[in-house]
Amino acid sequence: MSDMEKDSRKYLIPGLERGLLILMELSRNNREMSFAEILKLVDIPKATAYRAIQTLEYMGFVRRHPSSGLYSLGVNVLRLGFEYVASLDIVQVGQPVIESLRDTTGCSSHIAIRDGRDVIYVARVSAANATIRRVSVGTRLPVHRTSLGRMLLTGVSRQTFESLYPDEQLPDNEPGSPENREALWAMVQQDRERGYVIGESFFQFGISSIVYPLFNHDGEVEGVVSIMVPVHEIPENDRERLRHDVAEAASSISNLLGHQGTRGGKRQMG
C-alpha cells in the first residue's frame, strides 16, 4: 500500500466501511443471502460482521426474513435511492413532460442517464395498455448495447470514450452489441450527426425505441428521453409523427434544464 493510500485510509471509520461492504454485496447479488454467504464475500471477522448486520437491520437498511433467516436489502436502502433520483433536476422537470409524451403517443416513456458504462432509468411512465414492463426506475442496462446508451455517448469526447472502453473488444458479444469499439464509435458519431436514434429491435426483439438527447445549460448531454414502441419495426406512417413528439419532449425538457440551443430536440450547432 502506498503512503498516499495509507494517509487516505487513516481517516476511515472501520465500522461504517464494513457495513457498507455488506450492503454492496447484498446489492450486487440481488438476492436473499444467508449470514454464511455474506461472510464468505466480505473480509470481516465473524463477530464484527454479525454486529454490522444487526446494526443495519435495526436501522432498516437490511431485512431478515422471519422464516428463512435470509438477509436482503431493507426499505431504507430503496428509500435512499428513490430520494436521490427524485432530487435530480432532470426528473423533477422531466416527469410531467414524459407523462404528456405518453398520453400523446400512447407509448411508455422514459428518462435515462449514464453512469459509467451503464444506462440508468431515472423516470418512467407506462402506457395504459402496456404489456412490456421490463424496465423500472433504477434499472441498469449496458450503454453499448442500447439505443439509449448510444445517444448518451454522443456527449462524450474520444478520450472519455476510450477510458470507458479501453479494449478494442467490447465487454460482451451478446445480440445487439456492435462488432467492436470502433464500430460503436462510428455508430455514435452517426447518431450525433442525426440528432436522434430510432432503435428497432436493437436490444430486444420486437421492441423499438425513439431516443433524443437532453441538454443542460452548458450544452452537455444530461440524459435522454425515449418512448418504447411494442413493434419490431415502426410503420412508416407512424414514424415521423412519433419522432416529432419525442423531439418536442426533448426540447421542452432541455429548455427547462436551462439549455437555449435546442429546437425540435436537436442541438443547434454554431
From TrEMBL:
<keyword id="KW-0238">DNA-binding</keyword>
<dbReference type="InterPro" id="IPR029016">
    <property type="entry name" value="GAF-like_dom_sf"/>
</dbReference>
<dbReference type="GO" id="GO:0045892">
    <property type="term" value="P:negative regulation of DNA-templated transcription"/>
</dbReference>
<dbReference type="InterPro" id="IPR005471">
    <property type="entry name" value="Tscrpt_reg_IclR_N"/>
</dbReference>
<dbReference type="InterPro" id="IPR036388">
    <property type="entry name" value="WH-like_DNA-bd_sf"/>
</dbReference>
<dbReference type="GO" id="GO:0003700">
    <property type="term" value="F:DNA-binding transcription factor activity"/>
</dbReference>
<feature type="domain" description="IclR-ED">
    <location>
        <begin position="76"/>
        <end position="259"/>
    </location>
</feature>
<dbReference type="InterPro" id="IPR050707">
    <property type="entry name" value="HTH_MetabolicPath_Reg"/>
</dbReference>
<dbReference type="GO" id="GO:0003677">
    <property type="term" value="F:DNA binding"/>
</dbReference>
<keyword id="KW-0805">Transcription regulation</keyword>
<dbReference type="Pfam" id="PF01614">
    <property type="entry name" value="IclR_C"/>
</dbReference>
<dbReference type="InterPro" id="IPR014757">
    <property type="entry name" value="Tscrpt_reg_IclR_C"/>
</dbReference>
<keyword id="KW-0804">Transcription</keyword>
<feature type="domain" description="HTH iclR-type">
    <location>
        <begin position="13"/>
        <end position="75"/>
    </location>
</feature>
<dbReference type="InterPro" id="IPR036390">
    <property type="entry name" value="WH_DNA-bd_sf"/>
</dbReference>
<protein>
    <submittedName>
        <fullName>IclR family transcriptional regulator</fullName>
    </submittedName>
</protein>
<dbReference type="Pfam" id="PF09339">
    <property type="entry name" value="HTH_IclR"/>
</dbReference>
